[in-house]
Write a structure and sequence with these properties.
heterodimer; A: 437 residues; alpha+beta; 2 domains; 10-stranded mixed beta sheet; 18% strand; B: 245 residues; 6-stranded mixed beta sheet; 32% helix
């Protein structure tokens, strides 16, 4: 009896009991389908999220200063001013200076492509005639646009000449334009900007498109929306009376491993802060963020898959149960087969193959079902996220590894849970088996 | 003519070493020459079923030697005994023992499956055997669509599948009415006379035993009588006239 004969024998006996075979498979089908569906949703989310984050710039390293851990918990911007009389924010001496940036660039000329620099001026409102809009003013250099994926729809972004000349020009959002100027061309128009500490008149030189970030909060009312207004870096520094930075972004070369480079930057700048009692330098890179999120997602996927695999285990026990029943029912058949020349090994092989065939067919059906369920799951998540105003959509990506693994695993279950019943059948005494009623 | 079956000093005991130790066969010597149609009769409990299991190599005797077609069977491991069983012995059971979810043709093919006969040859030979037992028109029928006599004819075809040295028939007409029983006996006579098969018939029916060439009577594990039977219609020791292809 060769392998092909074994398979055809297995199909013959499964056909004789179609309903039972199907019910036995059901456990395997559900288990495999659950695992595949979860892994499909998981890997789809993982791919999309890492794609999205890649587009935000994996080679950007954000460097910022934060309060040292003083034993009252981690210091940070949120902790500032927690007690009356305590220093409000970092002083001029604590900020990152242009000298530090120059030195850093000299130390890593190949790694650093550009600095994206910004100074926060504060938030307030703008007025032009009777129209007004809420803004927060940010002084930025020209690289800030690339580093932050700012999409200019009209005019231009603020540049180095604007900065050097301390020009009072501004780049505003399309939302601000539509609420203040309607269909009119805003380029060249002047607006009055008012914040707590500053009042100034600016000429609009560019308009950028407000893109609702997938990760940020989005609001529905245009009128209440506070948008960024970008002014030249030099202008902002003059207003704030500072030439240092609380934070800046390094745009590193694509060949650089941002995660390790950010550690180098942290230690390079750290020496300036070794004697500073209040502040220290921290870095943050999108690449390490992507790694964190991706590994978190895959761990979650794995954990849920493991739970789903319990269904598979239960299915396997079901297979064993039915095989034991089937062998008891077919005791006489086993006796006859032995009388007709079957060896113990051949009887064992026959029943193991039968169990494997059940699990294999169940596995295939489960994989198909799981892919369909996974696609539906991805669609549901997409429709939920688009309902919230986000435009993120996950492409379905079915993991080939998961399919191969599931097929192999289901057959292994057949082998594992089929072996005991098959061995029991093989060891039957032919005389007893032939007498069995 | 050479002996196809040689049993010497066959003793079978059960529950060895226990208080209820039971000796079923008390040292039997049986020789069956090639081409003989022999019957073994006895009351129930005489040990004839045990003897048949030993001849069919389903069981091993406690003591004694058994040679089948010149092979000393008792020294062989189980795997070899399984093969010998499939190749040298054809079983015909009282209750037919066809496999329910396979048609007649597949049932006849079964012993060839375990004898590694290629699929095409299996099908051809099964069809030929079903013709011999006049069941060719029912080849695709499931066992539950066949009458008792038809089932037994399929079972005989199955017993012939690997062209065995010996056909071992255990009460082959026991579950049949006398008319179909007659038909089945005729097939055995046919196999014996036309194809020269050695047939061992185990029965408790003296009339059937009388049709065979030799009758061995068992009682309480001993051979109490060996005598010549009347043979099929009195034709004793008919020479084989046609070889089974």
């Amino acid at each position: 009896m060769n392998f092909g004969d074994n398979i055809s024998q297995a199909f013959t006996s499964l056909r004789a009991n179609k309903m039972r075979a199907l019910l036995t498979m059901l456990g395997i089908i559900i288990g495999i389908a659950a695992v595949i569906a979860i892994m499909t949703v998981g890997s789809s989310m993982q791919n999309s999220i890492s794609d999205q984050m890649q587009s935000l710039g994996v080679n950007n390293i954000t460097v910022y200063i934060q309060q040292k851990d003083d034993g009252w918990g981690r210091g940070g911007p949120g902790m500032m001013g927690a007690f009356p009389g305590q220093q409000q924010g970092p002083g001029e001496d604590d900020l990152i200076t242009n000298e530090m940036l120059t030195a850093l660039r000299e130390e890593y000329p190949d790694e650093i492509q550009a600095y994206s620099l910004s100074v926060d001026v504060g938030s307030g409102s703008t007025t032009a005639g009777s129209k007004y809009a809420y803004i927060s003013i940010m002084g930025a250099n020209s690289e800030y646009m690339t580093a932050n994926n700012i999409d200019i729809t009209r005019g231009r972004f603020v540049n180095d000449q604007d900065s050097d000349g301390r020009r009072k020009v501004a780049v505003v959002s399309d939302k601000l334009v539509s609420s203040m100027f309607g269909e009119e061309d805003p380029i060249g128009k002047t607006i009055m900007a008012v914040t707590d500490s500053h009042v100034g008149t600016y000429t609009i030189v560019g308009v950028y498109q407000t893109e609702s970030s997938d990760f940020g909060p989005t609001t529905t009312s245009d009128a209440d929306t506070q948008t960024e207004m970008y002014i030249p870096l030099g202008t902002a520094q003059k207003i704030m009376g500072t030439d240092g930075y609380q934070m800046f972004t390094i745009m590193s070369a694509t060949s650089v491993n941002a995660t390790t480079f950010s550690e180098q930057v942290q230690s390079a700048l750290g020496k300036y802060y070794s004697r500073n009692e209040e502040y220290e330098v921290s870095t943050f890179s999108m690449e390490s963020m992507v790694e964190t999120v991706t590994s978190m997602l895959s761990q979650v996927t794995l954990a849920i898959s493991a739970i789903a695999a319990i269904a598979l285990l239960v299915g396997g026990i079901g297979v064993m149960n039915i095989m034991l029943v089937s062998i008891t029912e077919r005791t006489r058949e086993i006796g006859v087969r032995k009388a007709l020349g079957a060896t113990n090994g051949e009887i064992r092989a026959q029943f193991i193959v039968e169990a494997i065939v059940i699990c294999f067919i169940g596995g295939i059906i489960g994989i198909i079902l799981g892919i369909i369920l996974g696609m539906i799951g991805v669609q549901v998540i997409n429709s939920m996220s688009s309902g919230e105003g986000g435009d993120m959509s996950y492409g379905t990506s079915v993991s080939v590894n998961a399919i191969l693994l599931a097929t192999g695993f289901s057959m292994a279950i057949g082998l594992f849970f089929g072996y005991y019943p098959a061995n029991k059948a093989a060891k039957l005494d032919p005389i007893d088996a032939l007498r069995f009623e | 003519m050479a002996n196809i079956i040689e049993l010497h000093g066959i003793i079978k005991r059960y529950f060895i070493g226990k208080p209820n130790e039971l000796q079923v066969l008390n040292g039997l010597d049986i020789e069956v020459p090639e081409g003989e149609f022999v019957s073994i009769i006895g009351e129930s409990g005489s040990g004839k079923s045990t003897l048949m299991n030993i001849i069919g190599m389903l069981d091993r005797p406690t003591e004694g030697t058994y040679s089948l077609g010149g092979i000393d069977t008792l020294v062989q491991p189980d795997v070899v005994l399984s093969r010998l069983r499939g190749q040298k012995v054809g079983f015909v059971f009282q209750t037919f023992n066809l496999i329910g979810r396979m048609n007649a043709q597949k049932n006849v093919e079964m012993p060839m499956l375990y004898n590694h006969v290629p699929a095409k040859e299996r099908a051809e030979r099964a069809a030929h055997l079903l013709e011999i037992v006049e069941m060719a028109d029912r080849a695709k029928h499931q066992p539950n669509e066949l009458s008792g006599g038809q089932k037994q004819r399929v079972a005989i075809a199955r017993a012939m599948a690997n062209d065995p040295d010996v056909i071992l028939a255990d009460e082959p007409t026991g579950a049949l009415d006398s008319a179909t029983g007659r038909l089945v006996m005729d097939i055995f006579h046919d196999l014996h006379e036309r194809y020269g098969k050695t047939i061992v018939l185990i029965t408790h029916n003296p009339e059937l035993a009388e049709e065979t060439q030799r009758i061995i009577t068992l009682k309480d594990g001993d051979i109490v009588g060996v005598r010549a039977g009347a043979g099929h219609g009195g034709r004793q020791n008919a020479a084989p006239t046609e070889a089974l292809s």
